[in-house]
Structures are given as structure tokens and as C-alpha cells.
Amino acid sequence: MRFTDARLPSTHPSNRQLRADGYGRSTADSRSDGSVCPGSLIVVSNRQPYRHEYDSEAEDSGGGGDRSTGTSSITVDEPTGGLTAGLDPVVQASEGTWIAWGDGEADFDVADDDGCIGVPPGDESYTLQRIDLSEEAVDSYYYGFSNRVLWPLCHGFVDLVENRSNDFEWYRTVNERFADAVAEHAEADSIIWVQDYHFGLAPRMIRESVPRSTTVAQFWHIPWPTPASFQHCPGGRAILQGLLGNDLLGFHIDRYVERFLDCVERYLPGADVDRTQRTVAYGGGTTRIVATPMGVDAPTHDGNARAVDSDQLSSLFDRYDISRENVIGLGVDRLDYSKGIPERLAAIERLLERNPGWHGEFTFLQTATPSRTDIDAYQRHGDLVRSEVMRINRRFGTDDWEPIVYTEDYLSNEELSGLYRRADLMVVSPLVDGMNLVAQEYVAASVDGDGSLVLSEGTGAHERLGSHALTIDPTDVDGFASQLEAAVTMAPRERQRRMNTLRNRVFDGDLEWWMETQFDWIRRVHADKRRDGGDRGSDSDPDPDRGPGSDAGSDTDAGRSTDRAGDSRSESRSSSDGDTNEPPSTV
């Protein structure tokens, strides 16, 4: 019960031009003015593109100097993948500004009094302004409202929402600080691009403090909830008003756009929603809502997979005692309750129950990156996953084989690329996921064309890849197990046919395509504003905290401190989260 066929020839996806239906990649020649950004670019994100750290290894060896005298050796953690790496060259080309939380322990020792530093190191092309946040600010803004309220709520886990006192006020305060930093840099022709759910209030704050001709855009990288879920959002009306401070608001897929418009219609009676044009007129201005599914750096993943060192992969298999002859299933996730890992384990258990012939012949390697471990829900979830792995291995394992190899070890990009290429099937089973980039990384790295993608219908990526992946409902254990059986028994030509199509779609809608599409929209909105004289009022609802979750909207002094203790540090970076599908919405 093994694949006996030889590895099939590499597939080479085509680089198609952008077609009338929106699929395919546009090129620089297709841009109206040949430029990436029509004005000076200001990026706002929680994560920073460069982090400065003290070199602990040099210090331990006695050669790293003394921090107290400023002679300690400092290293720079540079972007390695995802949006941060993709956006960095764009900001370099525009000689713009990037504003982010400074979470590196040496960040403010190398920056000026305003937290600013020229980057990239040694070739300073733009300004990185770091916002210094105290431990209390990080706990309430990041671990609090962002990840105890917005994250579970947007993923449909309403029962996990924790509305702690002061979290919303700290969230507001941190959004204010970022908005103030933007105002210091913004000019009449500036493009301000805000990233993700950490800044739900900032766009309207920015709008009220920058020239009217300035364009404010935002991309919301996680799902948008249904109105039934959104009604549980503390300060929900203020979030909607904040987001409608944008001129352009982007989501991954149409479903999230429609849900957002549903929420606006239900909870902001004064808003004028045009579903045909996908615009919302509110507070004296108009916000255009678009769906643009995010991709990955497909050529890089392809190249890394082709360059895999077989000895390194063999060493990895030896490390985890995996037989090189076994059929290999793979899961790569953050240890997050939205990723459907327990449901995946249940399906693997059912597969083993039904198919004793696969015992000793099939190994599932699950890599999990611990995340947000200060939050109880994440601790409980991690404990559940580990206990289920142990239980299933005790039930089916033998002295020389475990059906599930589970690790929380850090894996290098090279090791991960090797696993992507070697895996016979990739299981991506989130209950809900805004996009899911891991599925696309696997496809891009499947250069031999003989792998199978088992993909949850709850991911945004399913709208682009679902027709040629093996679709699952993660909560249907029997159906899930049946798709795993289909994956491990599929005929070679069928695997090749499916993977060829998947690779074309991933390459045609890669990160470069997504970035170009974002700036195509930004240029269009920016041109409209200039033509209309930048006329966007700053009127706002006089009571922004009434409506869904109004209890969090009291305007207290709690959380309004501008404390710059700044000694709280973030968790280590994970490979991908995250966090595509249909072409940009035509409006």
C-alpha cells in the first residue's frame, strides 16, 4: 500500500497576462503610470520589517561587549517571507515611511529620540518609526482586545471572547498613538496603507488629522464575522466607524465583503450602502470595499524546493524517526484553535481504524508553532492537541512506528521546503481561516507535481483552489477520513492533473500579483480623490460607542497613558499565518 510510481516530471506554471476575467498576473507594463505608488507611501502595521536584538551568543562567549556602555553587539532580524518581505521593496522604492511596534530589545537603542531609524541597514532607503509600547499596553491592546476579542470573534469563536476591563481603551489609545505618528509624516499626496485588525479604529483617527487629499487604505487579513457574531463585539460600532474612515478597505474574498456590508447596514443606520458598487457613504466620505485574495511568493517557494538538499531532508527524517519509505502526510500550523488540528487528528484516527493495512506504512508529521501562550484559550488548546497525539500514538503505535510525529521545534525555511516537496499529501483543515498561505506554499513547492492538497472549505484559499483540492468539512470526521483515503490512493495521473492546475492558480495569483492589484486599486481611489478635490468630510456619529458591544465604549482615562516603558517583547515570528481566491471584485 505504497506509491510505487516514480516521481513525475516537474510542472512549470505559465506566467499569463491579466485576462479580462481578472485571473493571471499583471505586469509593470500594464500599469497606467509605470509607478508602484502614486504618492509618498506610509505603511502602518503591528509587525515591523526590521528588528534589532542584542547578540546573546556573542555576549555569552565574552565577545559581545557591555550593554550598559553601548558597546554590546547588535544583530538585525530581517523579513524572510509573507507580506512584510513583499512590501519592504515597495516602501524602499517609494522612499516612504513604515510605522510599527518596536518589539526588539535593542530597537530604541539604535533609533533616534522619535523612535526613527533608516532601513534597510547599510542601504537606508526609507524611515522605520517604531512605537514604544509598555507591558500594560501590549497586554491590553495586543493580547487583550486584538487577540481576546477581535481574533476569536472574527473566526466565529464567540464563546472565547474575553471582554476584560480597559482592553478596549488601551486598543483605542494605541490606535491613537499610531494615528498621531502617521499625521507627523503625512502630506497632501500621501498614501497611507494600514494592515490588519490591530488598527480597527485608526483609519478614522488618521482621516481627521491628515489633509483631505490624503488617501487612506486598509487590508483586513482575517475573516469578517457575520452580523450575529459581530453583535458580541465590545465597541463594535466604533470599529465600523473607524474602518469607514478608509477610502479603500480590502478583504480576501467576496464573502467577507458581503458580511461587512451586512454589519454596516445593521449597526450603522446612518450609512448609505451601495451593494452594486460596493461602496459605503458615511461621515462625509465614501469607502470602497474590495475583495483581493492574497498569494504567496510562489517563485521563491518553487526555487527553494528545487534546491532541497536530500541529505538535510534525510537528517530531518532521522531526527524524528520517520521511515523514508512511508507515505507522508504533513500539517504546518500555528498552535491556534482556529486551525482545526484536533479535528485533523480525529480524521487520522478514523483513517487508521478503517485501514489497518496502512499501519506502519503511513506517517503524519504535524509541526505546530506555539502562539499567544499568555492567553488561556491557547494554553488549553495546546494541551488538548498534545494529549490527543499521545493517545492516538498509544492506540496504534508500535515499537518502531508512530502514526503521528508531532513537533513544536523551529524548522528552517530549507527544512520546510524539503517537507513540502516530499509530502505525499498536505492537510490544511482550519475551521475558519481568512486566507491560508500554507496551502499555497505547499502547492508552489510541489515541483514534482505528485502531491495532494486536502483543503478545508472554511479557508479563503478554498475559493481559488477548492475545485482541484480534496475538499473537507473539518467537523465531519467520516467525510474527512474518506478524503484522506482518497489522497493516499489517488492515481498518479490524477494527482498530476490536479497539481498542475493548482500550481497555475497559485503562480498566477501570487504575492506579486496581489501587491500589484492592491496598488491598482489604491491608484484608482487616489485619482478619484484628486479629481474630486479630496473632498471628504470629517463628520462622525456623535455617539460612536452605541450599538453592538456598547459597554466597552466608555471614555474613561484608563489606558490613555502614553507610557513608553517599552520593555515588553513579542512572541517569536512564525512562518505564515495566515494568512487566496477569486480575482479582484469588479465594481
TrEMBL record:
<dbReference type="GO" id="GO:0003825">
    <property type="term" value="F:alpha,alpha-trehalose-phosphate synthase (UDP-forming) activity"/>
</dbReference>
<feature type="compositionally biased region" description="Basic and acidic residues">
    <location>
        <begin position="557"/>
        <end position="576"/>
    </location>
</feature>
<dbReference type="InterPro" id="IPR001830">
    <property type="entry name" value="Glyco_trans_20"/>
</dbReference>
<feature type="compositionally biased region" description="Basic and acidic residues">
    <location>
        <begin position="529"/>
        <end position="548"/>
    </location>
</feature>
<dbReference type="Pfam" id="PF00982">
    <property type="entry name" value="Glyco_transf_20"/>
</dbReference>
<keyword id="KW-0614">Plasmid</keyword>
<protein>
    <submittedName>
        <fullName>Trehalose-6-phosphate synthase</fullName>
    </submittedName>
</protein>
<feature type="region of interest" description="Disordered">
    <location>
        <begin position="529"/>
        <end position="587"/>
    </location>
</feature>
<dbReference type="GO" id="GO:0005992">
    <property type="term" value="P:trehalose biosynthetic process"/>
</dbReference>
<feature type="region of interest" description="Disordered">
    <location>
        <begin position="1"/>
        <end position="85"/>
    </location>
</feature>
